[in-house]
Amino acid sequence: MAGVAVRRSGVPGGVRAVVLDLDGVLVDSLAVAREAFALAYAEVVGGGVAPVDEYCRHPGRYLPDVLRLMGLPAAMADPFVRESNRLAHLVTPVDGAADLLGVLRGRGIGLAVATGRSGVRARDLLGRLDLLRLVDHVVGSDEVARPKPAPDIVRRALELLDVAPADALMVGDAPSDLASARAAGVLAVAALWGESDPAALLAAGPDVTLSGLGELRPLCDPCPAPGTPPGDRPVAGGDGPAAPGRGPDGVDGHAG
């Protein structure tokens, strides 16, 4: 299929679960993230030009990790979250997101969102966009011990879906997403329509590259769990407990 490049064979036995990043893959939130970061920088750091472009070179990462890597104050996290929430009405779904999720759900495929955002804020955003009902679980970076690029968030999603890594794939738009997927043992699918520079994403060595969200469909053969009709699967919103030492709201980056 045009726009789809596969580096290794498909998932043995068919796909039973799809794990998706949120920002850049399912929703278009980059403009909001850039504005929130600039406002948080002005509030905490003060004068000068906010290093927004450098911030955007860390898609998919948990915000506290990004601030640490950039040598910026951790205190920027709270105003970033506040401004992101204030501007959340400007975030829109990626074209075809609801349709694609509905098709995969109808095929009996388990769906989870694994995001750099906190779980609370990710579920709130998906609810605002009427996408939460179309996924089975949402796992935020504050709900696992180690955020991406560690495999914890993908492993937690698969645990909630009760699916083995060999039967799953993950779609992400950042090198950290692909690293997390590979470390968890699932097929790493690069979303070239997302927030990362395509060259950087390709250099990360994805197993599959897609140029549009709709191209995910042919990779996902119908394969419901034995004895589980698609209509009987629970609707949206499950998640794991917050990791020790992180608050219930958490803080997040622009991409998950």
Automatic annotation (TrEMBL):
<dbReference type="InterPro" id="IPR006351">
    <property type="entry name" value="AHBA_synth-like"/>
</dbReference>
<protein>
    <submittedName>
        <fullName>HAD-IA family hydrolase</fullName>
    </submittedName>
</protein>
<feature type="compositionally biased region" description="Low complexity">
    <location>
        <begin position="233"/>
        <end position="246"/>
    </location>
</feature>
<dbReference type="GO" id="GO:0016787">
    <property type="term" value="F:hydrolase activity"/>
</dbReference>
<dbReference type="InterPro" id="IPR023214">
    <property type="entry name" value="HAD_sf"/>
</dbReference>
<feature type="region of interest" description="Disordered">
    <location>
        <begin position="221"/>
        <end position="256"/>
    </location>
</feature>
<dbReference type="Pfam" id="PF00702">
    <property type="entry name" value="Hydrolase"/>
</dbReference>
<dbReference type="InterPro" id="IPR036412">
    <property type="entry name" value="HAD-like_sf"/>
</dbReference>
<keyword id="KW-0378">Hydrolase</keyword>
<dbReference type="InterPro" id="IPR050155">
    <property type="entry name" value="HAD-like_hydrolase_sf"/>
</dbReference>
<feature type="compositionally biased region" description="Pro residues">
    <location>
        <begin position="221"/>
        <end position="232"/>
    </location>
</feature>
<dbReference type="InterPro" id="IPR006439">
    <property type="entry name" value="HAD-SF_hydro_IA"/>
</dbReference>
<dbReference type="InterPro" id="IPR023198">
    <property type="entry name" value="PGP-like_dom2"/>
</dbReference>
